[in-house]
Amino acid sequence: MELLLLICIGLVIYTYLGYGIVVWGLIKVLPRRKAVAFSDDFTPDVTLIVPAYNEANCLPAKVANSLGQLYPLERIRYLFVTEGSTDGSDEYLRTHYGSSIEVLGGSERRGKVAAMNRAMQQIKTPIVIFTDANTQLNPQAVRNIVRHFRDPQVGAVAGEKRIQTTDSESAAGSGEGLYWKYESQLKRWDAELHTIVGAAGELFAVRTELYEPVSTDTILDDFIISLKIAGRGYRVAYEPEAYALERPSFSIIDEQKRKIRIAAGGFQSIARLTNLLNPFRHGLLTFEYVSHRVMRWAVTPLCLPLIFLLNAGLVVRDGWATGWGLLLAGQVLFYGAAWLGYVLEKRQMRWKAIFVPFYFTFMNVCALAGLIRYLRGNQSGTWEKVRRADTVDILT
Length: 396
Fold this sequence. Notes:
Elements lengths: L1 H28 L16 E6 L7 H9 L8 E6 L7 H9 L4 E3 L7 H9 L6 E5 L4 E2 L3 H6 L7 E10 L7 H23 L9 E5 L13 H11 L3 E12 L5 H21 L6 H4 L1 H35 L4 H24 L8 H22 L20
Parallel strand pairs: 1-2, 1-4, 2-3, 6-8
Antiparallel strand pairs: 4-7, 5-8, 6-7
Helix pairs in contact: 1-6, 1-10, 6-12, 8-10, 8-12, 10-11, 10-12, 11-12
């Protein structure tokens, strides 16, 4: 029992702290990869694809932001995919922007992945960039993300996701922002060591010739698309100076729905990318993929309740006046703070001091719920729009 408890604790520590230390250490001791110099003259033709299902309230800002990219106008094409929208998005775009952008509509809602697969059939440019309708890109995003493709070994490039939070933001929003700052640092190290393992759909680019249509029931299309490219021997680069700004979820309930869906998609991805678990074939990619993704989605969430139960069993056996008693007391306090954070958040009462235990626990509980959802097979590949903070309808 003691050995199993220590193993579980070790796995959790490795997942959230040890892996970053190991990657940082490997970067210091392994030979550095020869970098390909960036050049301002490298401006290949690109297409910016914006899936926009019922995103009418975001479209004016998104179109203005897209047209404002500091990239040669003759080199960039804009394609908004409004397939299945019922909020007038298609008509609005065609009426107000004419030939400045292209619109791919349709009355049937078949899901984001089906829309992306359909859109890719029309792409003629060598590079395609995907970005969400509810995000804002920095003006240099396209130029900064495209420059990596000067390296022929780069098959995809991920931008950085940044969460806009205020001092009065909810615990979910603050936790989400902290989580993505931590994720961004890990991605920097992953990319420096070898490749990042999974792009965020808010902003990522691929070589058009490497795009593989994915099954329409795929939940994490961005993750699957980028990992399939990595699995073919290409690197997925990371560009923190190409970033997408996004507001946090509107409420803890909205964030919970989003996290459970992502977790279900994580388990689906693991089942569909089993070839990446072979270290003899993929080497560093397998190490990064298992350590950064598989353990966080499929190992740590199962270890946490096991740690609590094993710890409680040892306290029953040996008593509270032991190291095991101190450990259990610490767990009770930690999860008590997390529960208090959840209760306060649901009542719109915020206390930033406890958002770290709250958000850590929240993520792992959602991961377990995502596992149940995946095993039940009741997950759809169609878009599930989540409300974001400060969403305002500006087309009324």
